[in-house]
Amino acid sequence: MMDDIRKKLQEKDPEFPTITEGTVDALLPYVDAFHGLGPGQRIMPNGFPELFRYTFPESIIIQLNASPATKRSDVNFAVVYGLRHEIMCRYKPDVAYLKYKEVPTMEDYRNYYINDPPDLSTINSASPEEITAYTHAVIQFENDNSDFFRHGDFIDEDGIMAIHH
């Protein structure tokens, strides 16, 4: 089914990307990118980004981030594991944050009957200007070094050695 969908879409526009939410290895031949890597998309217990990257190094994976802001640690984690960055703009307070740098409160989300607001600790981790500038700088760095970050091969067998004295 996914193969048929992809072929129909690419008949209309050969550049049209096929993206699916969630990561399923059986869909590798039929999608251009995966939206989310489950517990492997940020620092957390039992995450597995190395396993997926080692097994499927060619996959484009978007770091699922249901917030109009992102923490530096998540941005850096995405760089290390070759994930693409994402911010979500789902609600009116998100628009105000991105467009006018207005930092939303939980009350702002309640006013619009939103049951699943973004994590306010992420939004409040730094000023909107600082979060935006850092994220843009990192993405520019990746783009400037795209041979490594966008087209490089993921390797983990070289490892890092700690020398204890």
Protein described:
The protein is built from eight helices and three strands, in the order αββαβαααααα. The chain is mostly helical. β2, α2 and β3 (61-62) form a beta-alpha-beta unit. It is 41% helix and 5% strand. It has a domain at 36-149. The chain has a three-stranded parallel sheet, with no helix packed on it. The chain has helices at 2-12, 49-55, 72-81, 92-100, 106-110, 120-123, 128-144, 146-149, and strands at residues 19-21, 33-35, 61-62.
How is this fold's topology laid out?
Layout: H1 2-12, E1 19-21, E2 33-35, H2 49-55, E3 61-62, H3 72-81, H4 92-100, H5 106-110, H6 120-123, H7 128-144, H8 146-149
Parallel strand pairs: 1-2, 2-3
Task: Offer a few descriptive terms.
8 helices; globular; 165 residues; mainly alpha; 41% helix; single chain
Radius of gyration: 18 Å
- DSSP strand content: under 5%
**Class from secondary-structure proportions:** mainly alpha
How many H/I helices?
A: 8
Q: How far apart are the first and last residues' alpha carbons, in Å?
A: 58 Å
Strand order of the largest sheet: 1-2-3
Shape call: globular
Strand segment tally: 3
Order of helices and strands: HEEHEHHHHHH
On the 0-100 scale, what is the average pLDDT?
Answer: 88
- Could you list the spans in which at least 5 consecutive residues all have pLDDT below 50? none
Q: Regarding quaternary structure, how should these chains be classified?
A: single chain
Major sheet characteristics: 3 strands, parallel
